[in-house]
Specification:
Blueprint lengths: L28 H7 L4 E3 L12 E2 L1 H6 L7 E2 L4 E6 L22 E2 L2 E6 L5 E8 L6 E8 L8 H5 L1 H9 L6 E8 L3 E2 L10 E8 L2 H9 L5 E2 L6 H10 L1 H4 L5 E8 L24 E2 L2 E2 L10 H11 L1 E8 L3 H5 L8 E6 L6 H13 L2 E5 L7 E7 L5 E2 L6 E2 L7 E9 L12 E6 L6 E7 L21 E4 L2 E4 L3 E2 L5 E2 L6 H5 L14 E4 L2 E4 L24 E2 L2 E2 L4 E4 L2 E4 L3 E2 L5 E2 L17 E4 L2 E4 L18 H4 L1 H9 L5 H7 L3 E6 L14 E7 L4 E9 L6 E6 L3 E2 L8
Length: 710
């Protein structure tokens, strides 16, 4: 089978030039796949065929005669590995599903086969499931200023249990306390930084009992050790009893918080390690480790899928509201002086937090790209950062996110990422996305050493090309390397008897040019029978090759359909030449390459609308207005000939002109007539210059001065 002659084609912008794959200077099937997602390789050994011709678009390869079954063009794909359906159980089925797994996120695991540069997409569904379990851990500030709050917190257990029954039948509560630098007069509690009091339990009475046993303490400074407490509440999962359900952490306080660096006040310089350090339910590193930073706590809360509710007094509300932009899912409620509204704060904050879902993902490897498109309750697609979120979600509502991931050029096996995790903020459920870049051709497993097709065993046949053994060269290893540089061979590599072999961009091997890549820019390669082609040497316009409006093919710009010119510098559209009245060059010139060429040298500007030496529009029509409205100036015959294009509306007084609706084409004018009186009129120009409507005030004023507004 003989390959057809090469042809140069240009398709619509969504398709690709035949030469785009070859211009990368590929030498193997693997390099061809890395050149771009639209490139394919022909695994077919053909006498006389150049290696660079094997890599091209599938259409070009088939057109040249490559058998369809020898085309290496692997495409990416999406495989759902775990796709457990979202749970939907009405309340009457609660008892039947007590031991079943509840699912709000679908799918759970996805495998993406990624061709470099070709995005792969899949859909992630989320439903706010009815009766979803909730764990709530209450962290209470026991400084002296919170003394009057204890009595209201004691009632919180039973009241909150009753309230949350409307949301879930599986609700548990826990309790801990936090103190600042303190003094300990009797009957205050002994000093501690964080004390875990009650593990998560469904027994509301036990919560009330434990709150009743707590005693306040006196503080020596205003900020509390809240960040220390948040860190321990998040990391001590076993002691607290966190489940993989909705995790809420409520912190009530009336003061600010210490953060990293404040420990130096007590001589502590060791950084916080972000780990659990409880002994007999008391934090033991308060005297040896510094406070954690805000960012450190935020990252731990993100990892542990904990949503924060700050119930704080008015004096410090601004401080905790500043954390909402740092913590992953966070709400702030204003606490009354005695905490009587703590139940309302918790319920409202929970509803606010759970009514919004925001998708996040683990860090992607360099070069990978991920994008989201959300389809919320209104089903309208949203992109960019808004594509990660959906708001105003009620129980039972289902939303979806289209996730698209694109891989960069192929990397070595050790650099390939195993997976990416996608999850809604504040939830434990996640989607594991396994990434499998397509970097190898299927023909690479069918290597034939000492293949008879490679000049009787002088090379290894791999993917339709011969890898020659030492001392042999040529497409089929048909030449002896020591003899391949003879004059007869070099003559075959000269274009039109040129002096340079292979146009100076390659070397002659067995009478055929082997083209080089650019020494300055390795990504720029030469190709063609005589290495005469490159796709990086076309004319430029405004610093861009082919003006940014076309593609360079073998040194020639192939322009997009709406452009022309050697550098695609000329737009075929007349849009840039339209004046304000939608005329081409205001009717005073011709549009050439998107620029107006004005007929009259007096007119300037991009659309021939500027005329510094021309009279204003008011002065231009003055004579016609005077002769038509007041019989002044021009004689009647001349007036009728020159002023027929004016359409008149006569009004009595000048003040009436102010009632005419304004518009961009309306000009307000004051001119002086031949008798020295001021004449007021309005001009409204139409799209065509010979159509003008005039409103003229018949009442004239004495000449004091005049002005023109146009």
């Amino acid at each position: 089978m003989q390959w057809k002659n090469r042809t140069f084609c240009w398709f619509l912008p969504t398709q690709h030039s035949d030469h785009e794959c070859q211009s990368q200077g590929v030498r193997s099937c693997r390099e061809c796949l890395a050149a771009g997602p639209h490139c394919a390789w022909c695994n077919f050994l053909e006498v006389g065929q150049h290696i660079w011709e094997r890599c091209d678009t599938p259409r070009a390869l088939l057109r040249r005669g490559c058998p369809f079954d020898r085309l290496e063009d692997p495409r990416g794909s999406t495989v759902l590995l775990k796709n457990r359906k979202i749970t939907f159980h009405p309340k009457e089925q609660r008892r039947q599903r007590q031991h079943k797994q509840v699912t709000q996120l679908q799918p759970q695991s996805v495998l993406l086969h990624l061709r470099p540069g070709e995005p792969q997409s899949f859909e992630v569904k989320f439903r706010r499931v009815e009766d979803y379990p909730i764990d709530l851990y209450y962290l209470m500030d026991l400084s002296f200023s919170m003394e009057d709050d204890l009595s209201n917190v004691k009632k919180l257990g039973a009241d909150l249990m009753e309230e949350m029954r409307n949301t879930t039948s599986d609700f548990r509560m826990g309790l801990s306390t936090v103190m600042p630098y303190i003094s300990t007069p009797w009957p205050c509690a002994p000093p501690f930084t964080y004390h875990h009091v009650l593990s998560l339990t469904a027994n509301g009475s036990l919560f009330t009992e434990q709150v009743g046993r707590q005693r306040i303490s006196g503080n020596l400074d205003s900020p509390e050790g809240g960040l220390d407490a948040l860190m321990q509440a998040a990391t001590c999962e076993e002691q607290i009893g966190w489940r993989n359900v909705t995790r809420l952490l409520v912190f009530s306080t009336d003061a600010g918080f210490h953060f990293a660096g404040d420990g130096k006040l007590g001589g502590i310089v060791l950084p916080n390690d972000g780990k659990c350090h409880l002994h007999k339910n008391v934090y033991t590193r308060g005297n040896s480790q510094d406070y954690p930073s805000v960012a450190h706590v935020a990252e731990i809360l993100r990892q542990k899928n904990i949503q924060i509710i700050f119930a704080v007094t008015e004096e410090v509300t601004h401080l905790y509201e500043g954390l909402t932009s740092i913590f992953p899912k966070c709400a702030v409620g204003m606490l009354s002086n005695n905490s009587h509204n703590i139940l309302q704060i918790i319920v409202e904050a929970y509803n606010a937090l759970t009514s919004e879902v925001a998708m996040e993902n683990s860090k992607l490897p360099p070069g990978y790209h991920i994008s989201y498109t959300s389809h919320c309750k209104d089903r309208k697609p949203r992109h960019s950062e808004q594509g990660r979120k959906c708001s105003n979600i009620s129980v039972g509502d289902e939303v979806s996110f289209n996730v698209s991931i694109t891989a960069p050029l192929c990397m070595t096996a050790s650099q390939r990422p195993p997976s990416v995790i996608i999850k809604p903020q504040g939830y434990s459920e996640e989607v594991e996305v396994l990434l499998s870049p397509i970097c190898e051709c299927s023909c690479q497993k069918d290597v034939v050493p000492r293949s008879p097709s490679c000049s009787h065993g002088n090379g290894t046949l791999e993917c339709g090309t011969c890898r020659c053994k030492e001392g042999r060269v040529g497409t089929l290893c048909e030449c002896n390397q020591a003899e391949s540089g003879k004059a007869i061979d070099s003559y075959l590599c000269r274009r039109d008897n040129a002096t340079e072999v292979c146009s100076g961009h390659g070397e002659c091997v067995c009478g055929k040019c082997v083209c080089h890549k650019s020494s300055k820019k390795p990504n720029h390669a030469y190709y063609g029978q005589f290495c005469e082609c490159t796709d990086f040497s076309c004319d430029q316009y405004r610093g861009l090759q082919c003006g940014g409006h076309g593609r360079c093919v073998c040194g020639v710009c192939i322009c997009l359909p709406e452009f022309r010119g050697r550098a695609c510098e000329c737009p075929l559209s007349l849009g840039s030449c339209l004046s304000q009245d939608e005329q081409i060059c205001a009717g005073r010139g011709d549009c050439h390459c998107g620029t107006c060429m004005c007929h009259d040298n007096r007119f300037q500007g991009p659309t021939c609308e500027l005329c510094p030496s021309c009279p204003g529009v008011c002065t231009l029509h003055r004579e016609c207005i005077l002769c038509r409205a007041f019989s002044l100036g021009l004689n009647p015959k001349e007036c009728e000939m020159r002023c027929i294009h004016l359409n008149f509306t006569l009004v009595g007084q000048a003040g009436v002109l102010a009632t005419v609706p304004p518009s961009p084409s309306l000009h307000s004018c004051v001119e002086v007539d031949t008798e020295g009186c001021r004449v007021h009129f309005l001009l409204r120009t139409r799209q065509k210059e010979d159509s003008v409507h005039v409103h003229v005030a018949l009442e004239r004023g004495r000449r004091t001065r005049f002005s023109v507004f146009s």
